Amino acid sequence: QVQLVESGGGLVQPGGSLRLSCVASGFIFSNYAMRWYRQAPGKERELVAAITTAGVTANYADSVKGRFTISRDNAKNTVYLQMNSLKPEDTAVYYCNAVIVRGIGRDYWGQGTQVTVSS
């Protein structure tokens, strides 16, 4: 059974930090590029960060560049999103996404974790 399970969300004050985790199971994690998306109320889902299969290359949305860091541990089937200097506009549900790069398969989504930045 394929699963992507996010954790680490919560309520944090502006300027604070959170670390999101997404644990994958049921597929060959190292065959997949990994992405974090977010969706705020009334807005479209947007790509926040992406990382290649071996974790060599990462890309970020302009709105989070310099504040967020995506990383992965293929031995633990886990991708992370370290979020620093959080702003109220970072408030959203954050989703983990697995994108097939090698082999035969399909893309997968996690259920999301809520991040709220508020004083």
Structure description:
With 119 residues, this protein is mainly β. The strands form two sheets. Strands 2, 4, 5, 6, 9, 10 and 11 form a seven-stranded mixed beta sheet that branches. It has a four-stranded antiparallel beta sheet with strand order 1-3-8-7, with no helix packed on it. The chain is built from no helices and eleven strands. β5 (46-51) and β6 (58-60) form a beta hairpin. The mean pLDDT is 97. 0% of the residues lie in helices and 51% in strands.
In short:
The chain is built from no helices and 11 strands. The protein has strands spanning 3-7, 10-12, 18-25, 32-39, 46-51, 58-60, 68-73, 78-83, 92-100, 108-109, 113-117.
What is the strand and helix layout of this fold?
Elements: E1 3-7, E2 10-12, E3 18-25, E4 32-39, E5 46-51, E6 58-60, E7 68-73, E8 78-83, E9 92-100, E10 108-109, E11 113-117
Determine the mean pLDDT. Answer: 97
List SSEs in N-to-C order: EEEEEEEEEEE
Structural class: mainly beta
Q: How would you characterize the largest beta sheet?
A: 7 strands, mixed
Identify low-pLDDT runs: none
* Secondary structure tally: strands: 11
Q: What is the straight-line distance between the termini? A: 40 Å
- Percent in helix: under 10%
Shape: globular
In terms of DSSP E residues, the strand content is over 45%
Q: In DSSP terms, counting alpha (H) and pi (I) runs of 4 or more, how many helices?
A: 0
Radius of gyration: 14 Å
